[in-house]
Amino acid sequence: MDLIDDTSGNTPEFSVSELSGAIKRVIEGEFGFVRIKGEVGRVSRPRSGHVYLDLKDDRAVISGVMWKGVAARQQTQPEEGMEVVATGRLTTFPGQSKYQIIIEDIRPAGLGALMALLEKRRTQLAAEGLFDAGRKKALPYLPEVIGVVTSPSGAVIRDILHRLRDRFPRKVLIWPVAVQGERCAPEVARAIRGFNALTPGGALPRPDLLIVARGGGSVEDLWGFNEEAVVRAAADSAIPLISAVGHETDTTLVDLAADRRAPTPTAAAEMAVPVRHELMAALDGFGARMSQSLSQTLVRRSQRLRDMSRALPRPDSLLDGPRQRLDARGTQLGPALIAGVQKRKVALATKSGSLRPAALRRAVADEGRHLRQLAARLAPALARQVAERRERLDDRVARFRPDTLTRDTARKTEAFAAVSGRLGKAGAAQVSTLRQRLTALDRLRETLGYKATLRRGYAVVRDGADRLLTTKEAAAEASGLEIEFADGRLKLAGGKVSAKSAGGKTPEQGSLF
């Protein structure tokens, strides 16, 4: 019999949950907040919106998780093979007996990682054909409306407007966006798709050309224009698009997807419109050349007409030959008429000799016999025709009997009722579809209208003549000011303040810009 040495009698016993909780408290207490540098391994994005990933080096792997709200705020989304620095807190997951890091921030580990990610994304999108030259659209020669996607407060929009005003003034619609940071990519993509969604000829005109512009900056500052959402929106744009992101040495993925790349925002404005004075000078030159060419052509044609007229004979000499031939024919007409009458008299005498009474009687007798033969055949033919017509009439009367008509009417009534039912359902479905489209368009109208912008804290300033004021100098020179808020208008005139409600009869602003 074996003897068992039981020396563990004083060792405390833990349940599985108690031991897991103790380990969790120790790990979270010792490693409450850490930063980990490593390579991203497996990445999983379930429908919940959370991101599960592995961080690894050459000797170890640690699991990580980013909750949905944290993942949405990240400027750079983790991808497999990316070198990153993750910041978060260590904890355990008792359900699988493993430890993991709850990631609160994740960034690429230096410029090299960003460039590697950029090259990988460029290769992937190029393989899909988003950068193919065949997809590029030609820019309009002179667009009526130009849409600009950029920050409204910066030197970029001022440079574009100033250059357009110098070259060829055009209508400009500005879609304000953030040009760096985590809001950059979704706002720029939404702006490009929003401009494309406008209806041509609507209250807010659809641009003929788009410019996506931003000043220079580091790779991190321009990273929003390398995001896949922005690149796909630029490639899918039905409106020709010019990319003017950064300086001439900066290259982003949206430059490759755009229809034309401009080295600077000012160069984008120069690509958008021609120089008005050069066009006018060219038109004047063309007009002068056309007038000179027309004058020279008239002189040459006049000289050629005079030269050709010298080779033509005199009008009197053209009539001498026809006059002489007419006189000759006149002298021959009398004898020819006499000879023709004599010839016809002889022919008439010859014909009348054969018309004797006996010949006429024989001809009448022959025709009478032929007529009697035809009369004998007429009665049987008429009888057959009458019999055939009576049979056809009986058949038609049989087809149109009351019971036949009743059955046919009932069958056609059922068919008509079925068609009416289908037509009613189709009409109801079409009305429902049109109502839904109308509701969606109304929501879009509310979203794009400047009233919604006023409710976010903006205001519109006008002078006493109800003209829109956009600069401090214009406001200083105005005799009176009227400021429109979301809940009404406030008038400033001669030191007095007067308010006008939003429901008052005041002309609405036609455009936000």
Spatial shape: elongated
N to C succession of SSEs: HEEEHEEHEHEHEHEHEHHHHHHEHEEE
Number of strands: 14
CATH superfamily of the domain at 141-277: Response regulator
> What is the third-level CATH name, the topology of the domain at 141-277?
Rossmann fold
Stretches with pLDDT under 50, minimum 5 residues: 495-513
Tell me what portion of residues adopts beta-strand conformation: 15-25%
Q: What is the CATH architecture assignment of the domain at 141-277?
A: 3-Layer(aba) Sandwich
Biggest pleated-sheet summary: 5 strands, mixed, barrel
Biggest sheet, strands in spatial order?
1-2-3-5-4
Write up what this structure looks like.
The strands form three sheets. A five-stranded mixed β-barrel has the order 1-2-3-5-4. The termini are far apart. The chain has helices at residues 16-30, 68-73, 111-127, 155-167, 184-197, 228-236, 253-257, 265-272, 276-310, 315-353, 357-399, 402-448, 450-455, 472-477; strands spanning 34-44, 51-56, 61-66, 83-93, 98-108, 145-150, 171-176, 209-214, 241-245, 260-261, 460-463, 480-485, 488-493, 496-501. Helix 4 packs parallel to helix 8 (265-272). The chain is α/β, with parallel strands linked by helices. Residues 495-513 have low confidence and may be disordered. Among the domains are: 16-109, Nucleic acid-binding proteins (OB fold (Dihydrolipoamide Acetyltransferase, E2P)), CATH 2.40.50; 141-277, Response regulator (Rossmann fold, 3-Layer(aba) Sandwich); 451-501, no CATH class. It has 14 helices and 14 strands. Strand 9, helix 7 (253-257) and strand 10 (260-261) form a beta-alpha-beta unit.
